[in-house]
Amino acid sequence: MTISATGVAQEKDYGSVVPAGARAGDLTLAPCNVHLEGDNRQYAGDCGTLVVPENRNDPGSRLIALPVTRVNATGKQPLEPLFWFQGGPGSPNKMGYPTDGLLERHDLVMVGYRALDGQVHIQCPEISDALRNVDKDYLGRDSLNRYAEGAKACVNRLAVEGIDLDGYSINQTIEDNEAARKALGYERINLFGNSYGTRVQMLYQWRHPDSIHRNVMVAVNPPGHFIFDPQSLERILQKYSRFCQQDAYCSSRTPDLYATMQQVERNMPRSWMGIDIDPDLVKFITNIGWHESLGTSAMPLHAPAAIDMWLDAAEGDASGMALVSLLAPLILPEAFDWGHFFSMGGSVPDFNDPDRDYLAELATDTGDTVIGSPLSLFHAGIMPGWTVSTDQSVGEVQASDIETLMIGGTLDGSTPFEYARDELLPHLSNGHQVVIKGQGHTETFWYSQDEARARLLNTYFESGKVDDSLFVDQPPLFDVDTSWGGIAKALLAVVIVVLSAIALVTGLVIRKLLRNSSYRKTVEA
Fold it and tell me: Which pTM was predicted?
C-alpha cells in the first residue's frame, strides 16, 4: 500500500482511472480546493484516487478507482477526522449540508460510493425506458413486472460489459472507507452521516470496531428498514392529525385530518380539467412528502404540502392531485440512480426475504391504511429483476460499546425514530438518542434550528457529551407557501393567457387578411 502526492488537482480529475502500476489500497493525493455547498465556500484540502478491487471476494478481480476528498481542519491540533456517509442510495457521497464549525477541529473525508462515484458508474436506462412505456396503473403488478424486466435487461447488459455486480455492495463500500483510513494514516475515525448512510455506518462499526472513535447518525436506518412499513406511515399520518387539531389553520379546514384523508381515499376524484387522477401516483408523492415536515426546496415535496393537497380534494378542488398525476410519470424515469440503488439494496436482506410477499404487504389499495407503502412497493416490484449480491450484509443488530449518538425527529416518515430507540439503543452500551418533536427527516434537520444543531454536533464529537439544550419543539406549518393546487392553478392561468393571446393574434391576423381581401376587391371593381 502506498500513498503519493502529485501536483495541484481539480476535483473533477480524480477517481476516474486506475493509475498505471497501482495496486489495491494505493492512494494518490494532490492539494486541491474543495467547494462545500452547505457552507457556500471553498476549503483547502486534498483530492485523490483510491485504488480498490472491484470484488474483494474474487482473488482475480480487476482494480477500479474511487475519488477521495479530504477537507483539512482549519484549526490547530485537530481531533479524530470525520468520515462522511451521504443518504440515498443513489446520491453521491458529498457533504452538501452546513458543517456547523466542525472543520475547526476535524478533517472531513469523503470516499466516493462505488457504483456511483468514480470510474464505474452503474447506470440502467432500461429501467427508465420501462417506466416511460407505462401510461397507467403505474404500481399495478403488470407494470411492476415490466420494470423488473427492465432491471433484468440492465443486469444482463452489465454482465456482457464485464461489470462484476457481486462486488457492488455495502460491505465492499465499508472496506473502501477502511482502505482510505489506512492509506491516510488515521488510527481511529469518527463516522458521520444520515439516512442510508447510517446503515453503512452501523455496519462499519460492527465490522471494524477498533477503527471507530465516535459515530453520529442522523435519521437512523436499522437493518430491515429499507422497506417502509405501511403501519409506520399510518402512524405518521395520525401524528400529523393530532398536530392539525392544535393548529388554528389546519383545524379550521377539518376537525379530524385522519378521518378526512380516509374519506378522500375512499372517494378519490377521477379527474380535474380533463386530467386523469391516478390514486397510486397521488399516494406515491404523498409517501415522498412524508419524509419531511418542512419545505426546503422549490417543489412542495413535504408532508404539509401533501396534506394540503388532500384537504383541497376534500373541499372539492382536485387540482393538486391532477398535477402530481401529470408530473410523476415525467419525473419517475430519472428519479433514482437505479444502479447504485439496487446494487446496495440487493446487498442487504431487507428486500430479499423469500417468505415475504412484498407486493401484497405493501399494496396501496387494501383499505387497511390511507396510502399503503407505495415507494417501497415500487422498489420491491423492481428488485426481482436485479441480481442479489452474495456479499450480504449483517441482518441482525450487533452489540457495540462505541460511543454512538442517534438523532431523529418525531415526524420522520422515512426512518421513524422508534426503530432506532427500540432496535438499536438497547444494544449500545455507550449509545444516546436525541429526538426532536415535530421534526422530519434529514432536510428538516439540516435546515432548521442551526445553533442547536451546531452545539449538539460539536459538543459530542469533541467530548462525547450530549448537549441538546437549544432544541425546541418544531410543530409543522400547515399553511404552506407553495402548494400543489397553487402550482396547478398558476399553470392553468398561464395556459389560459397563452391560448387567449394566440386566439387574439389569430383573430387580428384573420381580420387583417379579410380587410386586405375586401380592399383588393374594391380596387379591382
Answer: 0.93
